[in-house]
Design brief:
By secondary structure, the chain is an alpha+beta fold. Among the domains are: 69 residues, no CATH class; 123 residues, Sandwich (Immunoglobulin-like), CATH 2.60.40.1470. The chain contains five helices and 13 strands. The strands form three sheets. It has a six-stranded mixed beta sheet with strand order 1-4-11-7-6-5, with helices on one face. A hairpin with a 7-residue loop joins strand 12 and strand 13. Helix 2 runs antiparallel to helix 3. The two termini are 33 Å apart. InterPro entries: ApaG-like (IPR050718), ApaG_domain (IPR007474), ApaG_sf (IPR036767), UVR_dom (IPR001943). It comes from Nicotiana attenuata (Coyote tobacco). This is Protein ApaG. Pfam families: DUF525, UVR.
Length: 282
């Protein structure tokens, strides 16, 4: 298993060569916010046991590329926003047309757009119809690809993304990576002991996965610090959902009882939801 670990201060930027834009060797950056002291990057690989923390040798450049259709869509939206703010209306119009073509090729994106337009125009009967169609096409598509929940001062943020380079739709394999940030906003140190995932595919098939710690560790998270890691989940359908909990305990007092920290539901979606970052809200 390949990994990189850093001890960082707030405001630090970490860069490495990547293919986020045009494959030109540009740098990808991670911005460390707050007081996250440890950051870990794991190399992910598909396993038969869905939701298990992945272990593998370093992936090839094509496998490690995160430039999926969902990220292309998000990039087009960002570029259109920039063009609009800079009053480059010709470019904004071109990007708008490109987005519409992109959306028309993806039923979920098209229905999301129509639903949003119907709500904005107060055409509520149409909105209800589009919402029902969306539920039929992709049952989990109305759930965001991120979640944020706090239990007893322990905040768990999750973000998922579809990995096109490792997926084989013709073989019924859709590969999703997810990144988790755990922040201890309480005044007591905690240790993460076990994980529990509930994974549901688009057909309603549910799998429960239990494991010791995460990525082979049982990290101790001090007050006002955090722990962040990445893992992956192969799925047999182009959409689904994950949720679960971490079993933790306070380690500042002998005999402390364990408690469960919620991981709120989030979507696994081939087309994403147009966002690729954690929420910065506190």
């Amino acid at each position: 298993m390949q990994s990189l670990s850093f001890n960082l201060n707030a405001g630090t930027k970490v860069s490495w060569p990547g293919r986020f834009n045009q494959g030109d060797g540009s740098k990808q950056q991670i911005h460390i916010r707050g007081n996250v002291k440890m950051f870990r990057i794991m190399a992910c690989a598909p396993e038969m046991n869905s939701g298990a923390e992945s272990q593998s040798s370093s992936p090839s450049p094509s496998e490690s590329s995160f430039l999926s259709r969902s990220q292309t869509y998000a990039l087009l939206k960002q570029q259109m926003e920039v063009a609009t703010k800079s009053e480059d209306y010709k470019q904004a119009a071109r990007l708008r047309d490109s987005l519409k073509i992109f959306e028309d090729e993806e039923p979920v994106l098209r229905l999301r757009r129509l639903l949003k337009e119907a709500i904005a125009e107060e055409r509520f009967e149409d909105a209800a119809r589009y919402r029902d169609e969306l539920k039929d096409v992709a049952p989990h598509s109305l759930l965001k690809c991120s979640s944020d929940a706090t239990t007893l001062g322990i905040r768990v943020q999750v973000r998922s993304v579809y990995i096109e380079g490792r997926s084989h739709p013709s073989k019924g394999l859709y590969f999703f990576a997810y990144r988790i940030r755990i922040t201890n906003n309480s005044d007591r140190p905690v240790q993460l002991l076990r994980r529990h995932w509930i994974i549901t595919d688009a057909n309603g098939k549910t799998e429960n996965v239990w494991g010791i710690g995460v990525i082979g560790e049982q990290p101790v998270i001090l007050p006002n610090t955090g722990f962040e890691y990445s893992s992956a989940c192969p799925l047999g359908t182009p959409s689904g959902r994950m949720e679960g909990d971490f079993e933790m305990k306070h380690i500042d007092k002998v005999g402390s009882r364990t408690f469960n920290v919620a991981i709120a539901p989030f979507s696994l979606s081939k087309v994403g939801d147009g966002s690729d970052t954690f929420s910065d809200g506190s």
